[in-house]
């Protein structure tokens, strides 16, 4: 089957299982997930969706998220959108009741699972997630260019590679401003226009608080703040400016007021905050690297579960702007290593649970590449204790990488998004590439090993192991009476 036919077939298989085109409110995708806004959650057939070969798992948040994996989701999403466009929504027999029921379910889900802080973090994540593909591409090119420069190869090509790798980062503030205004309900191009002031070379002629501004000062944090201010100024203008003058006055006042505040306040404040983040991250790893790595690696999976990991995205981006790489991501990636080790232990302990073992076999390749949702939601979290022991593995791997940071060997990533083995092409550090790769690989091995051992010996009670390894006996299969299979001893 041709790749495009395969992707369309996947989209066609998913569509009826989420209630058909009439049940779709919105369609988007990130690095690994197809994100759907649904009118009626009760129409979704979760089990049938999870059984599809291309589906690694499902996650319910503010949107219904189907985990397809990196690369695949970017190809399936357009096919899914095309199918929805080809099948206009059908008229329901009782449209008012259906709409009311869908609205009620949506409101109840939001009230139960969302807080203002989490909603704000989701908006922040939505600003940066669309930028990740460009960050990855430019990061890999930057790493390749650095390798060629160090080896002294292709001196006529390396300046071109440097320009290609650096162009996006030089203007990332504009993209952040555009996305911020779009996400918070303003005019996107006005957000981009205000944020572009930050990277304009002419700001070097402006003095604020006795200091001359530098192009790029404040970085993505300044751009985010400037565009957010522009949204509120624009809303104020829309409320008070007469309609006849709106097209002239509103954009002018929005850019002027937000621009002046950005130049004479936000750039300076955001610059100080950005510098503090860089110094703080370096101090933390230089002085408490092993402990900091243990805490960060151990708590990252719970942060993901609570949605709080989204707050780290601007921090990663700020570090990449300042230093060329983020030292936090390789440590946080160790959480995925603990998850993989945990899953391998569950596979061995659940010897007679074929459905669970099949899930693990299908999800492990993605887990090695840093896509952890299938293992989290399909294996460790439902089992309880293994989720905790997976965190222990992540803590051990994080402590390993953090220890080397204390010794002066920092390991960083030139982009955000990938983890696991997929992070290798993006690695960069304070010493040679070989040393950086060796430290990161060592952290992964420690995470795998500790996650495996902690889960194998401490991840199950006797009752849990008995339940996991219960299989129907041949004589009782029709009656549906299970027969326990002797399990290995486990600590209660």
Automatic annotation (TrEMBL):
Residues 472-482 have a biased composition (Low complexity). The active site is at 30 (phosphocysteine intermediate). Keywords: Cell membrane, Kinase, Membrane, Phosphotransferase system, Sugar transport, Transferase, Transmembrane, Transmembrane helix, Transport. The keyword Membrane applies. Residues 8-90 form the PTS EIIB type-1 domain. The keyword Lipid biosynthesis does not apply. It holds the Pfam family PTS_EIIB. Residues 122-476 form the PTS EIIC type-1 domain. Residues 472-492 are annotated as: Disordered. This is Permease. It comes from Streptomyces xanthochromogenes. The gene is scrA.
């Amino acid at each position: 089957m041709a790749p495009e036919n395969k992707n369309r077939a996947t989209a066609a298989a998913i569509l009826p299982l989420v209630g058909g085109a009439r049940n779709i409110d919105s369609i988007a995708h990130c690095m690994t997930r197809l994100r759907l806004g649904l009118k009626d959650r009760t129409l979704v057939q979760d089990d049938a969706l999870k059984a599809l070969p291309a589906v690694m798992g499902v996650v319910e948040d503010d949107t219904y998220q189907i985990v397809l994996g990196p690369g695949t989701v970017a190809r399936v999403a357009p096919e899914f959108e095309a199918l929805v466009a080809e099948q206009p929504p059908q008229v329901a027999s009782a449209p008012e009741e259906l709409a009311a029921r869908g609205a009620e379910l949506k409101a109840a889900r939001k009230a139960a699972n969302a807080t203002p802080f989490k909603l704000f973090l989701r908006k922040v994540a939505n600003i940066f997630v669309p930028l990740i593909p460009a960050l990855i591409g430019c990061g890999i090119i930057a790493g390749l260019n650095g390798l060629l420069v160090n080896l002294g190869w292709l001196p006529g090509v390396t300046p071109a590679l440097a320009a290609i790798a650096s162009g996006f980062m030089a203007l990332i503030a504009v993209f952040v401003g555009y996305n911020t205004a779009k996400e918070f309900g303003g005019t996107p191009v006005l957000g981009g226009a205000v944020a572009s002031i930050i990277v304009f070379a002419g700001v070097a002629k402006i003095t604020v608080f006795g200091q001359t501004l530098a192009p790029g000062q404040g970085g993505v944090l300044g751009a985010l703040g400037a565009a957010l201010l522009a949204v509120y100024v624009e809303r104020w203008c829309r409320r008070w400016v007469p309609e006849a003058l709106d097209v002239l006055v509103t954009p002018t006042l929005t850019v002027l007021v937000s621009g002046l505040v950005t130049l004479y306040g936000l750039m300076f404040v955001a610059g100080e905050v950005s510098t503090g983040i860089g110094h703080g991250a370096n101090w933390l790893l230089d002085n408490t690297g092993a402990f900091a790595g243990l805490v960060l690696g151990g708590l990252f999976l719970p942060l993901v579960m609570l949605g709080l990991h989204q707050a780290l995205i601007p921090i990663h981006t700020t570090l990449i702007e300042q230093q060329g790489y983020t030292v936090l991501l390789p440590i946080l990636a160790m959480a995925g290593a603990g998850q993989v080790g945990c899953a391998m232990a569950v596979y061995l302990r659940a010897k007679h649970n074929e459905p669970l073992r099949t899930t693990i076999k299908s999800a492990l390749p993605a887990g090695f590449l840093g896509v952890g949702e299938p293992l989290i939601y399909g294996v460790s979290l439902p089992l309880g204790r293994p989720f905790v022991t997976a965190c222990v593995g992540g803590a051990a791997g994080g402590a390993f990488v953090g220890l080397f940071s204390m010794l002066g060997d920092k390991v960083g990533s030139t982009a955000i998004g990938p983890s696991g083995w997929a992070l290798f092409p993006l690695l960069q550090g304070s010493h040679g590439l070989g040393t950086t790769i060796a430290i990161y690989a060592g952290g992964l091995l420690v995470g795998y090993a500790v996650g495996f051992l902690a889960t194998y010996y401490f991840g199950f009670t006797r009752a849990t192991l008995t339940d996991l390894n219960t299989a129907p006996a041949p004589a009782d299969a029709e009656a549906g009476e299970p027969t326990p299979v002797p399990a290995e001893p486990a600590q209660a």
